[in-house]
């Protein structure tokens, strides 16, 4: 299921950029409403926003996230195939997400394969930019999720699939995140730059996992991270002018 937030007012004469959000929850929980505020803000900046409800895994199982990554790719293809209907530019679709949703957002940008058998494969599932909020994007040995992916980590781990054709990324991480060491995020950034893919890393001192959610600290970290995400999209030429988000 997809939830759409569109810019208010008259339809744009030019195709708009889009952001596809994937919620967190360890592949076993969570819901799309996590990114309601993000969607409303970026819609105010002229971006069509989608939130994806993907299939969740059984908490008691050790099943790898096959269903999750298939649904993420299917959602990207479904949206791109209907870009004219939604008035979006099929070449400016960003993926975004937090935690396990950040994994999915990075997966559609970096990893080949993982496609559903029913997908229309000629339609690309690849995003053109990635907004990653404490993403669990290293699923290799010692990384997050290895209990599920095991020796199959190269099928699922964005950090192990970086290549020159991947989209630029911006990553937000708390220095005290217990799931994602800062060194992991630094390596992802450095490995991206090594293959000539632009990647920004913003580390927020003293913050833990999920710090960016709008409800935390009266919205302070939501504000800071969204402002940086806005600037990132502006740098790409997707949105115009300075950020308009008001301080909490």
How does this model look, in words?
It is a single chain. The two termini are 31 Å apart. Strand 2, helix 1 and strand 3 (48-52) form a beta-alpha-beta unit. This protein has helices at residues 36-44, 66-81, 83-86, 100-110, 146-149, 153-156, 182-194, 220-235; strands spanning 2-5, 16-22, 48-52, 88-98, 129-133, 169-174, 199-204. The chain is of the alpha/beta class and 248 residues long. The longest helix has 16 residues, at 66-81.
Largest sheet: 7 strands, mixed
Percent of residues in helical segments?
25-40%
> What are the secondary-structure elements, in order, as H or E?
EEHEHHEHEHHEHEH
- Our count of helices gives 8
Give the rounded overall mean pLDDT.
Answer: 96
Query: Rounded to an integer, what's the Rg over CA atoms?
Result: 17 Å
Number of strands: 7
Low-confidence stretches: none
Question: Order of strands in the sheet with the most strands?
Answer: 1-3-2-4-5-6-7
Shape: globular
Proportion of beta-strand residues: 15-25%
Give a quick set of tags describing it:
alpha/beta, 18% strand, 248 residues, globular
Secondary-structure map:
Layout: E1 2-5, E2 16-22, H1 36-44, E3 48-52, H2 66-81, H3 83-86, E4 88-98, H4 100-110, E5 129-133, H5 146-149, H6 153-156, E6 169-174, H7 182-194, E7 199-204, H8 220-235
Parallel strand pairs: 2-3, 2-4, 4-5, 5-6, 6-7
Antiparallel strand pairs: 1-3
Helix pairs in contact: 2-4
